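Budget justification aside, the reviewers requested a transparent look at the raw inputs and outputs of the sequence design task funded under Objective 1. We therefore reproduce one unedited record. The lines immediately below are the structure tokens for a 238-residue chain.
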């Protein structure tokens, strides 16, 4: 029984390298994610119709034109390598045009990811204030630390942080959702990744066997000295 539960909790949130995003029936969920990492937006309606609008208040267009977006048989929407330009409102409606679920997503640009190691004294981005008519705070909203990558010996764990903006007395919002109408760009608008050392005891009932795959070997670019490392089926979300 315990084994079954563990399998469920491990396989449900990530489908392979994809992260499954769910939201309660008829609700709107607002969230920040990283560009370049595959996600599935859950909508359990076999004849679901998905609409997308990038501009606030604008009617959504039926989603079929984006090449990296695919509707799965159960109704959910799969976004492969989503781009910052795909920030906006994703609405799932049933065939009578009633809302099933809505996601307002800020795909934050992974190419600007600010990476710091806590134990090397590297500092995350600082809070800043912006003057946009009134004063707003721009800051990093951190997710919880992920699991340590080793047990019984020193390892590392990481956490992701997203750019959020907060008006006094208001609920914080992902930066690009807040700034949707004003096509403004600030250098502080970056997602973050923080690494920290960890040491956890081994707990056999919890150990997760994460297989790895070798698909290809790339030659370093002779001219640029750059190497692009691809890790198929990997995800920064875990
Ligand atoms: C930055 O702002 C956030 C949100 O108000 C707050 O939770 C956090 O403690 C602040 N960080 C610093 C270093 O002041």
């Amino acid at each position: 029984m315990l084994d079954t539960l563990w399998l469920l909790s491990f396989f449900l949130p990530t489908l392979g390298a994809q992260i499954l995003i769910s939201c309660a029936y008829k609700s709107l969920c607002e969230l920040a994610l990283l560009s370049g990492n595959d996600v599935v937006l859950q909508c359990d309606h076999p004849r679901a119709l998905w609409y997308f609008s990038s501009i606030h208040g604008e009617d959504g267009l039926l989603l079929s034109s984006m090449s990296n977006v695919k509707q799965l048989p159960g109704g959910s929407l799969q976004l492969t390598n989503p781009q910052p330009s795909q920030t906006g409102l994703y609405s799932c409606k049933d065939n009578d045009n009633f809302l099933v679920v809505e996601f307002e997503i800020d795909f934050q640009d992974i190419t600007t990811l600010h990476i710091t190691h806590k134990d090397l004294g590297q500092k995350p981005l600082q809070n800043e204030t912006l003057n946009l008519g009134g004063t707003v705070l721009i800051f990093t909203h951190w997710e919880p630390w992920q699991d340590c990558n080793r047990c019984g010996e020193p390892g590392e764990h990481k956490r992701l942080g997203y750019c959020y903006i907060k008006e006094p007395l208001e609920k914080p919002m992902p930066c690009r959702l807040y700034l949707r109408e004003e096509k403004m760009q600030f250098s502080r608008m970056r997602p973050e990744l923080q690494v920290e050392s960890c040491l956890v005891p081994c707990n056999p009932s919890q150990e997760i066997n994460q297989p790895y795959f070798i698909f290809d070997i790339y030659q370093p670019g002779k001219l640029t000295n750059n190497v692009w490392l691809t890790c198929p089926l990997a995800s920064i979300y875990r």
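Residues 127, 137, 139, 166 surround 2-acetamido-2-deoxy-beta-D-glucopyranose (CB under 6 Å). Residues 59 and 78 are 21 Å apart (CA to CA). Computational costs for records of this kind are itemized in the attached budget.
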